[in-house]
Design brief:
The protein is α+β, with helices and mostly antiparallel strands. The protein contains 12 helices and 29 strands. The chain has a 10-stranded mixed β-sheet with strand order 7-6-5-4-8-1-9-11-2-12, with helices on both faces. The chain has 4 domains: 33 residues, no CATH class; 328 residues, Alkaline Phosphatase, subunit A (3-Layer(aba) Sandwich); 52 residues, no CATH class; 155 residues, Galactose-binding domain-like (Jelly Rolls).
Length: 596
């Protein structure tokens, strides 16, 4: 019902409750009352990388304002690495339950029988969009467009090789980003918010910084280039201040972009009816100031899993509230569902609980709970007071937040209770986790484009990756007819597919004949056109790459033509039938398009 019409009828003395209102009008009335959601997730930003948490090396006034105008959770927990945290946010369930066991080569994929937070909000009539780093599956139906997000702009991999005008995708179609990636992702999120301002929207903005490579525009780096850090980190290895300076500059860029989103909400008069959340996906990606906590990214200790978390909802969540109770990423789905009054569409039991009573100040008794942290078989557990680490060492986190004194002998009953809880959790959650018998899916009519990046392929013979980390790598050193690249795929829809290879090849090496094959179907082509661009990325690095990230190149499409696939599983294989130069070509990805 139109608001003006409601006021008019009320003014005439007509009771709204006495009217017979059609269901579709009731739904519209409900939509008007429902708040919008904006969730901003940073990548590799530690708890200590915000000025609100006491770091005077940098200033993050926009993120800090969310705490000033809303609530800040003092003990909020995520996973030690990226994709598991994203899976827990999406499902409200511990990441092993959804089959997420790694960060690349298929281990990052969220099982298809899991429903996401976007599925729930979409079912409730919300417009849904994601803008940034997905990291829970590339091929449809693992793709965000199949997991409840109507709009997606960004990339599906774990990290990207260059942050300036990088190759990205928009709803499955390849595109080129504009400018610095975080600014670009924010532009698209703002465009979505503006376009959907007249209906409830769920806007997910998973940034990919300050994850390496350490790249940031000059305007943000200038402040930190020679900055003497006043607060330093504590760890088994000394802090590299050059890396820290780049990370802090990237955090200030994030803060600037968060400010742009908040400003747009104000301009559109949406701020009072929008829940805004900010958190990070794991601990800091280097030793730097983090409140003295033990552990960084990859660790199940406090420093590896404690994240900044703040939430604002004007008029509902009291400004300036600090909440001491422990909470985690698993709690966000049930919390947002209860705050907005929507139904969770997943039929599976959630591990998270609703934090609504804490946020709205109407809690009664809040029982102690356990939050488990897992990575690569290592498990720790946190209660309000204690942490039992992966080595069964017990720490009183109230008196010993730096985890320096093992009190398992003095507090044997507590240590035994938590140790048994960990054993039970492992027995229930971890068996069968690393299920690598999951082929890459190809050929869905609703989403006819399938990307098969080098990350998901397996090199054979002399072929090798361009970097130790598979996520943004390409295949190189293809020098022999005995070399090959394979992808374990399963074709959903039989039929004809256009096959395109994204490649580079020096002019002197052109002329090789290649073949793509799958389950008896074959197609051949010749690498006839040179494409020999330079490696990109080093020119923007503020810190030398030492974590295995590949540099990138501008790969060009080589159109093999049309190949017919039958339904079923098999090894999609690339091999050379004739090699005319030193190398056949470098390969970034294969693009398969199901033809109508």
């Amino acid at each position: 019902m139109n608001i003006n019409r409601r006021n008019f009828l009320t003014g005439l003395g007509v009771s709204i409750a006495s009217l017979s209102i059609p269901p579709w009008i009731k739904a519209a009335e409900s939509d008007i009352k429902r708040p919008n959601i904006v969730v901003i997730l940073s990548d590799d930003q530690g708890w200590g990388d915000l000025s609100i948490n006491g770091n005077i090396n940098l200033a993050t006034p926009n993120i800090d304002s969310l705490s000033r105008d809303g609530a800040l959770f003092e003990r909020f927990y995520v996973c030690p690495v990226c994709s598991p945290t994203r899976a827990e946010f999406l499902t409200g369930r511990y990441h092993p339950r959804g089959g997420v066991y790694g960060v690349s080569t298929g281990g990052e994929r969220l099982n298809l029988d899991e429903k996401t937070i976007a599925d729930s909000f979409k079912a409730a009539g919300y417009a849904t969009g994601a803008f940034g780093k997905w990291h829970n599956g590339t091929q449809y139906p693992y793709h965000p467009n199949a997991r409840g997000f109507e709009e997606f702009y960004g990339f599906c991999s774990g990290h990207w090789g260059s942050y300036f005008a990088p190759p990205l995708e928009h709803n499955g179609k390849l595109t080129r980003g504009t400018g610095y990636i975080i600014d670009d992702l924010t532009d698209h999120a703002i465009k979505f918010i503006k376009a959907k301002k007249d209906r409830p929207f769920f806007c997910y903005v998973p940034y990919n910084s300050p994850h390496s490579p350490m790249q940031v525009p000059d305007r943000f780096y200038k402040k930190f280039a020679d900055l003497e850090l006043k607060m330093l980190g504590k760890g088994p290895k000394p802090e590299d201040v050059t890396f820290t300076r780049a990370a802090l500059a990237m955090c200030e860029n994030i803060d600037w972009n968060v400010g742009r989103i908040l400003q747009k909400l104000n301009e559109l008069k949406l701020a009072d009816n929008t829940i805004v959340i900010y958190f990070s996906d794991n601990g800091p990606n280097s030793v730097r100031w983090n409140g003295g906590m033990k552990g960084i990214k990859g660790s199940t200790d406090e420093g590896g899993v404690r994240s900044p978390f703040t939430i604002r909802w004007p008029g509902h969540i009291k400004a300036g509230v600090r909440i001491p109770q422990i909470a985690g990423a698993i709690d966000l789905l049930p919390t947002l569902a209860e705050l907005t009054g929507i139904q969770v569409v997943s039929q599976k039991p959630l591990d998270g609980i609703s934090l609504k009573p804490l946020l709205l100040g109407n809690k009664t008794d809040w029982p102690d709970r356990m939050i488990f942290s897992h990575w690569a078989g290592r498990v720790s557990v946190r209660t309000q007071r204690y942490r039992l680490d992966n080595g069964n060492r017990l720490f009183d986190m109230q008196s010993d937040p730096e985890q320096e004194k093992d009190i398992s002998a003095e507090e044997k009953d507590v240590a035994d209770r938590l140790s048994k809880a960990v054993a039970k959790w492992k027995e229930e959650v971890l068996p069968g986790l690393e299920n690598k018998d999951r082929p890459y899916t190809v050929g869905y009519p609703d989403f006819p484009i399938t990307q098969l990046p080098a990350r998901d392929g397996i090199p054979h013979g002399n072929i090798e990756r361009s970097g130790r980390a598979p996520n943004c790598s390409f295949f190189q050193n293809w020098i022999s007819t005995n070399d090959s690249i394979t992808w374990d795929v399963e074709v959903e829809t039989p039929g004809k597919y256009e096959a395109v290879i994204y490649y580079t090849c020096p002019k002197a090496d052109t002329g090789s004949t290649i073949e793509m094959s799958l389950n008896g179907s074959r197609i051949q082509g010749v690498v006839s056109e040179a494409n020999d661009p330079p490696l990109l990325g080093a020119e923007h690095d503020r810190f030398p790459r030492k974590y295995g990230e590949s540099y990138v190149k501008d790969f060009k499409p080589l159109r093999l033509g049309v190949i017919e696939f039958r339904q079923g599983r098999g090894l999609l294989t690339l091999q050379a039938l004739k090699v005319t130069g030193k190398t056949v070509m470098d390969v970034r990805s294969i693009l398969l398009t199901l033809m109508k």
